[in-house]
Specification:
It contains four helices and ten strands. The protein has a single domain, classed as Invasion associated locus B (IalB) protein (Immunoglobulin-like). A ten-stranded antiparallel β-sheet has the order 1-2-3-4-5-8-7-6-9-10. The relative contact order is 0.19. β7 and β8 form a beta hairpin. By secondary structure, it is an alpha+beta fold. It is globular.
């Protein structure tokens, strides 16, 4: 597991506020020095944060969408990757769901399904400590599973998420395709296997 992932989860609270205030009519913004670059694509928002180490520039690239589950709990579905990590096709962005519903299964190796009527992707999720008042679950990042999940996200209009036998949410994928391509351009990896 890459250490930066837990740090990028701190961004969730900001993303939820950003998405809530911005509504669905997002506008692209231009980067300014020392301020993360942000972009919007349908219901997805992106953030690219650059840390200049003096020797090179490390970029952390995050795409996220906000949702509300059937019980009224707010949540986020987030992808995150750094150009200092292994990049696709060797490794794909980490996929994390954070939500305020404390009745969902927690622990290690929780069976999960992601998909729509056209097909489901089976995965394993691990719960983590609360992030900004929400529990978080990270999808086990195996290249074959991650690629299948990202392709399902590209294909679906809405993504149904289930942990164990308990439905989590139905999440809009409006803008996912462009947001994923933006991550690839920002962090320097090819997106043709997910979003040509």
């Amino acid at each position: 597991m890459r250490n930066f992932r837990l740090a990028t989860l701190e961004v969730h609270g900001w993303l939820v506020a950003f998405l809530t205030l911005s509504g669905s009519a997002f506008a692209q913004t231009q980067p300014t020095p020392n301020v993360p670059a942000t972009g919007t694509f349908g219901r997805w928002a992106t953030i690219v944060d650059v840390l200049d180490t003096g020797q090179d520039a490390r970029k952390t690239c995050v795409a996220s969408t906000a949702f509300v589950d059937s019980g009224g709990y707010p949540g986020t579905l987030t992808l995150s990757i750094s150009n200092g990590d292994a990049l696709p096709p060797d490794a794909y962005p980490a996929v994390t769901i954070a939500i305020g519903n404390k009745d969902l299964p927690t622990g290690k190796k929780i069976a999960a399904k992601f998909g729509d009527a056209a097909g489901q992707v089976a995965a394993i999720v691990y719960s983590h400590d609360s992030v900004a008042g929400r529990l978080a679950w990270m999808v086990e990042n195996k290249p074959k599973t991650s690629l299948a999940l990202l392709r399902a996200m590209r294909r679906a209009t809405t993504l149904d998420v289930v942990f164990g036998k308990q439905p989590v949410a139905t999440i809009s994928m409006d803008g996912f395709y462009k947001a994923y391509r933006s991550l690839g351009m920002s962090c320097g990896f090819a997106t043709a296997d997910v979003a040509p």
